[in-house]
Specification:
The chain has 310 residues and is an alpha/beta fold. It has two domains: 155 residues, Medium-chain alcohol dehydrogenases, catalytic domain (Quinone Oxidoreductase, Chain A, domain 1), CATH 3.90.180.10; 127 residues, 3-Layer(aba) Sandwich (Rossmann fold). The chain is 27% helix and 28% strand. It contains ten helices and 16 strands. The strands form three sheets. Strands 3, 5, 6, 7, 8, 15 and 16 form a seven-stranded mixed beta sheet that branches. 46% of the residues are buried. GO terms for molecular function: quinone reductase (NADPH) activity.
Length: 310
């Protein structure tokens, strides 16, 4: 089988489309024939070595986390899936490898794909949906009627956050680039700021929850946008922020972690069409490396990139 992998940490030049041997799923793992995979910035952040304290130095390593496909084998303790089930979710973080013809994933990091949801759409739900849910629901404990400000509301995590917040009955505002404002308004945002025109630090309104989906807000700005008792969640979980979170209950760094009940909720939302992420481009596996390289070099796409495999 083939996958995109690398033999050392580094830039786009280390990626190769090569043959590999798929292992056997462990007792709580599932082997999946990948139909579609979706790209996320975390994919090349890991490849660059930014997370090597977690991912280690065992090579070759596969690229990619998000996937949708069909179960081909299950571990001894797996009860939620059987061979032939259509599933979506995330590969194991340490090993990755969804940009492949097949991959191993934890049972808890997968959900059954609704028949009404395409493999393309399902592949997009993992990282974006899990991160937004972790931030807004798990960390901020969002409640109906609360106000939310989402920084980066036109990115994949931001759009997932907007739709999840509205599912829970929140009033949502946000900031993004001018090119994303129309899309943001179509999702039901009350107020949308162009971050190039209005700095978040100058916004006078305050919110129950500030969700930094872009990872670009300073801690002082995020907390400055909160009303009393509010929560600032961010996708940029630096050591300093973790330390502050020990002493300041307003600070909630996010480390996205999939789990079965969360993914089942995302599946239902996708079935109900209350969670839909736009797809900007679809490419076959053989053409994914040049596109990843172009995105890293600054190419802007308004939506997710999906890689077609099976």
């Amino acid at each position: 089988m083939k996958r995109i992998q690398y033999h050392s940490y580094g830039g786009p030049e280390v990626m190769r489309l090569e043959e590999f041997a798929l292992g056997t799923p462990g007792k709580d793992e599932v082997a999946v024939a990948v139909r579609r995979a979706a790209l996320n910035p975390i994919d090349w952040k890991v490849r660059n070595g930014a997370m090597k304290i977690v991912t280690g130095r065992s090579f070759p390593r596969g690229m990619g986390l998000d996937l949708a496909g069909t179960v081909t084998a299950v571990g001894a303790d797996v009860t939620r899936f059987k061979i032939g089930d259509a599933v979506f979710g995330m590969a194991r973080f340490k090993e990755a490898g969804s940009l492949a013809e097949a991959v191993i994933a934890k049972e808890a990091a997968l959900a059954k794909k609704p028949e009404t949801v395409s493999f393309e759409q399902a592949a997009c739900l993992g990282t974006a949906g899990v991160t937004a849910w972790n931030g807004l629901i798990d960390k901020a404990r969002l409640r109906p009627g609360q106000s939310v400000f989402i920084n980066g509301c036109s990115g994949a995590v931001g759009e997932a956050g907007v739709q999840i917040a509205r599912m829970f009955g929140a009033e949502v505002s946000g900031s993004c680039g001018a090119e994303g404002i129309e899309r943001a308004r179509s999702l039901g945002l009350q107020t949308v700021y162009d971050y190039r025109v209005t700095a978040a630090s100058t916004i006078s309104e305050v919110f129950d929850v500030v969700f930094d989906a872009a990872g670009t807000l300073s801690t002082s700005t995020g907390i400055g946008l909160l009303r009393k008792g509010g929560t600032f969640t961010t996708v940029e979980p630096t050591p300093v922020r973790f330390l502050r979170a020990v002493f300041d209950r307003r600070m909630k760094p996010i480390v996205g972690k999939p789990r079965a009940d969360l993914l089942d909720r995302l599946a239902k939302a996708a079935h109900d069409r209350t969670l839909v992420l736009p797809i900007a481009e679809t490419v076959p596996l053989a053409q994914a490396i040049p596109l990843i390289s172009a995105i890293e070099a600054g190419r802007k796409l308004r939506g997710k990139v999906v890689v077609t495999i099976g």
